[in-house]
Amino acid sequence: MTQGKLAVGYRCTSDDYPAMVLANLIFGGTSNSKLFLNVREKLSLCYYASSSYARSKGILTVSSGVETKDFRRAEEEIGRQLAAVQRGDWEDWEQEGALQAIPRPCCPCPTPRVRWRISIWDRSPPEWRRRRRSWLPRWSR
């Protein structure tokens, strides 16, 4: 057997639903996410990689199809990508793409609090934007 499925779950300690939706989209919720572009496309460690957020259970899950020989490397890289999102280490285009992917009928996002934070980012110098991302939720494995 050369192929396997890698599934990882993270407990989410935040009740800030709009922030969690945004963080999930940047992390692995779209085809422009960190998991898809870095783990799948750039490093070729898996056949697919995505994440999903289950608000009712307070968990973030990662699903990925990997070669068994690349299992450990893929798991480590997924952890690095998650840490990057937790630090707020992403480009403006990643955030903009995530915001555009939010389903408006399902989630009236961004909420006033998120909208205010985003407007602060838009008007502040780039070095301030990284510090402003500290409101994003933290995950524990």
Description:
With 141 residues, the chain is an alpha+beta fold. Helices cover 48% and strands 21% of the residues. The chain contains 6 helices and 4 strands; from the N terminus they run E-H-H-E-E-H-H-H-H-E. The protein has helices spanning 17-29, 34-42, 71-87, 92-101, 112-123, 126-132, and strands spanning 3-12, 46-54, 59-67, 139-140. A 4-stranded antiparallel beta sheet has the order 2-3-1-4. Strand 2 and strand 3 form a beta hairpin. The chain is globular, with a radius of gyration of 15 Å. The two termini are 28 Å apart. The model is unreliable at 115-125 and 127-135 (pLDDT under 50).
Summarize the structure.
The chain is 48% helix and 21% strand.
Give the SSE map.
Elements: E1 3-12, H1 17-29, H2 34-42, E2 46-54, E3 59-67, H3 71-87, H4 92-101, H5 112-123, H6 126-132, E4 139-140
Antiparallel strand pairs: 1-3, 1-4, 2-3
